[in-house]
Design brief:
The protein is built from eight helices and no strands. With 182 residues, the chain is mostly helical.
Length: 182
């Protein structure tokens, strides 16, 4: 799992955060008992080395979540750091870089994010966390086989485009390719 997380972090930071949230929820679902994961999920990993690396990765993640008091809710410390960085990048893209594609994607998603925030049980902080929370909720509903309206699907596609633009900017930032003025 560590290699999947690392790959997602390099390639698409939004997917990385959603993946990490899934792993956090997976650990909560087994009451942080990595042996339950080992018996039920990790046995499907054929390569013994990868299976052992995944078990150790889950053990480390579980220990850090316990240390961070994120056993019932909240997130692993790395996800909070990435969220803070994305929040800053979001504002930089709007105000300093003033990227037209990013602005268009964000302003298309903004009313949907505001609507979602009003409906959310726990109010997410900022546009980035709201977009990720909405996307995660949508994916969770799909995995559960729930019926999703076309209106909701269209809204999530709009939000996903905003996240894709933000993820691309994040990748460019870390590759030293983000233009600082247009």
């Amino acid at each position: 799992m560590q290699h999947i997380a690392a790959q997602k972090k390099r390639e698409n930071i939004a997917e990385y955060l959603i993946f990490m949230w899934q792993m956090e929820d997976l650990l909560r679902g087994v009451d942080f008992n990595v042996e339950k994961l080992n018996e039920s999920i990790l046995t499907s990993i054929e390569d013994e080395t990868q299976r052992e690396e995944s078990r150790r990765w889950f053990e480390k993640l579980a220990a850090e979540m316990r240390d961070d008091k994120a056993t019932v809710s909240g997130h692993h410390r790395d996800t909070y750091e990435v969220l803070a960085e994305l929040h800053l990048l979001h504002h930089t893209m709007l105000t300093v870089i003033n990227d037209e594609h990013f602005r268009n994607a964000y302003f298309a998603a903004k009313p949907l994010l505001e609507e979602f925030r009003l409906k959310a049980d726990k109010i997410p902080k900022g546009e980035v966390e709201t977009a990720l929370t909405a996307t995660y909720g949508f994916l969770t509903l799909r995995l559960a086989g729930k019926k999703i309206s076309e209106e909701t699907s269209a809204a999530v596609r709009t939000i996903a485009e905003y996240l894709a633009q933000l993820a691309a900017a994040y990748r460019d930032l870390h590759a030293g390719k983000l233009p600082m003025n247009n």
